[in-house]
Amino acid sequence: MTISIYDMDRTLTRRGTFVPWLRFWLRNQAPWRVLLLPLLLLPALAFQFGWIDRGSLKSWAHRIVLGGAVPMARVEAAAAVFAARIVAEDIFPGALASLAADRARGQRLVIATASNAYYAVAIGAALGITDVIATRSQRDGDRLLAAIDGENCYGDAKARMIAAWLERNGMADAAWRFYSDHISDLPAFEAALASGGAAMAVNPSAALRAEAKRRGWPIGDWGQPEASLFESA
User: Fold this and answer.
1) Under a CB-based contact definition with an 8 Å cutoff, are residues 41 and 117 in contact?
2) pLDDT mean over 32-39
3) Residue 156: what pLDDT?
4) Which of 6, 97, 117, 152 could disulfide-pair with 134, CB 3.0 to 4.6 Å?
5) So what's the pLDDT on residue 230?
6) What CA–CA distance (Å, rounded) separates 185 from 6?
């Protein structure tokens, strides 16, 4: 195997990154938008009741907190500062050790995350990882829009997006190793195994830990992730 693909939130990081990103933007870029936060209650309730999906909730949060259209240069500058803080404060030491070991073995390192690409790419860069598969947002010229471009990189969609990335990079037949904390990534685990690669359950949720034990997958405990409102399995 020459490719190691890592989930990001609660696999590399101690917590999810989307809510911290929204808080960071509010504090540093648009404090007045805190007045709009009550508008998030309706989409949050709609998500909890299954009336909208994660991607739609993410788009609503983006629209309310960042705005419907934001200059990309402004977003990228803020994302670089945010990423530096995440890497300094929220990366598991075990994750850094695993990345270093894979890098020393000559592995190509990839992040595959449901997080938004506009800051996930910055976190990858801060970790020395240039290959990032993430949820993309639409653009209008040099402005970032709230709507998702394509699929939210979660569950089955993440497995499809990894496959598309491998195909674009001429590695459709390559074996690869996949690291994640959550049972929602089971399609990506299955795809890694089908490639002749390996499944690595890291900081696993209860459901993933049970599945990994049942199937004899390696389990790595790099630390205790913080609980997430959006992922409870």
Assistant:
1) no
2) 95
3) 97
4) 117
5) 52
6) 11
Give the predicted TM-score (pTM) of the model: 0.94
Residues 89-137 pLDDT 10s: 999 999 999 999 999 999 999 999 999 999 999 999 999 999 999 999 9
Cα–Cα distance, 34 to 18 (Å, whole number)? 16
Query: Model confidence at 228, in pLDDT bands (50, 70, 90)?
Result: low
Domains and CATH numbers, the chain: 3-220 (3.40.50.1000)
How far is Cα 171 from Cα 159, in angstroms, rounded to an integer?
Answer: 15
β-partners of residue 144 are: 70, 139
In this structure, what token pair is assigned to residue 196?
């002749």
